[in-house]
Design goal:
The protein has about 260 residues and is an all-beta fold. The protein folds into two domains: about 120 residues, no CATH class; about 120 residues, Glycosyl hydrolase domain, family 43 (Tachylectin-2, Chain A), CATH 2.115.10. The chain contains one helix and 20 strands. The strands form six sheets. Strands 3-4-5-6 form a four-stranded antiparallel beta sheet, with no helix packed on it. The protein has a four-stranded antiparallel beta sheet with strand order 7-8-9-10, with no helix packed on it. A four-stranded antiparallel beta sheet has the order 11-12-14-15, with no helix packed on it. A hairpin with an 8-residue loop joins strand 8 and strand 9. The two termini are about 30 Å apart.
Length: about 260
């Protein structure tokens, strides 16, 4: 049976009761036309969502589209009117597969969002933020400071005003030991997204690079460290890994999450 891809994207709302002893899971429809939704639930019970909507036909890897933000104060029963995040020319792969807009909540409730441009043609890594609770967003800024293809953009933030935007790109050229892979790059802010550093390659003890087409995830953990999850690419073995390191440094240690030895040739 063929399933409409728009119908497949749903929001999972988890409500814990009895101090976490039991949980109720509900499957809810995302806003009309939404693809690749990303959700964060804050301490006040507000559900924040970003998503993409394609504006013209494309393949599985994305077509031209826009990205939006909504929030819900009743755990997904209703949503606020959507706020467009991007300027019209910013976003190409705004929907489909894993390439939707990613969001994180930072200091003073600031909402941080990152989206990809045309990832195959150096379309950029576009950042925006809201300082008024999601009513308005600043004009998008491109954090990709070289002309190269890029992919897998993601974002993390913490209550101290640190913001980390990460992605993979091709500026270093091919690595024969890690075919179909790309290095992870990062731009960081220490002033809650007002300004960002120039991008730098993430330094780690993993021997290769990340899978060039698999998504990244990043979070600041309860231990105060930055954690970066990725699928490996060294010698075509695609096992998942976690990088962990101090927020103030660029020196990460890798942890192999699962040893499946999946060879992607």
């Amino acid at each position: 049976m063929k399933v409409d891809p728009v119908m497949m994207w749903t929001l999972l709302a988890v409500v814990a009761v009895n101090n976490g002893a039991r949980a109720e899971v509900k499957i809810l429809r995302a806003p009309q036309g939404a693809e690749v939704p990303e959700v964060v639930l804050d301490a006040q019970g507000i559900l924040h969502m970003s998503y993409g909507v394609a504006s013209e036909p494309g393949n599985d890897y994305g077509g031209r589209g826009n990205s939006y933000y909504v929030q819900s104060r009743d755990y997904g029963k209703t949503f606020t009117p959507p706020v467009q995040l991007n300027q019209p020319s910013d976003i190409w792969g705004g929907a489909r597969m894993e390439r939707g807009p990613k969001l994180a909540l930072g200091k003073d409730g600031v909402i941080h969002v990152v989206s990809l441009g045309n990832y195959q043609k150096g379309g950029g890594v576009w950042y925006t933020r809201s300082t008024d609770g999601g009513k308005t967003f600043e004009a998008s800024r491109n954090l990709l400071d070289v002309k190269t293809g890029c992919d897998n953009a993601t974002i993390a933030a913490d209550p101290e005003g640190n913001v980390f935007v990460l992605w993979t790109d091709g500026r270093l050229g091919p690595d024969p030991k890690s075919p179909t892979s790309s290095p992870i790059f990062m731009a960081r802010s220490t002033d809650n997204g007002k300004t960002f550093s120039r991008s730098e390659a993430v330094q780690h003890d993993y021997p290769g690079r990340a899978c060039g087409c698999c998504r990244l995830e990043a979070r600041v953990g309860a231990d105060g460290n930055l954690h970066i999850a990725f699928r490996g690419g060294y010698q075509s073995i695609r096992d998942p890994y976690l990088l962990r390191g101090r927020k103030t440094a660029n020196d990460f240690q890798s942890i192999r999450v699962s040893q499946d030895n999946w060879n992607f040739g």
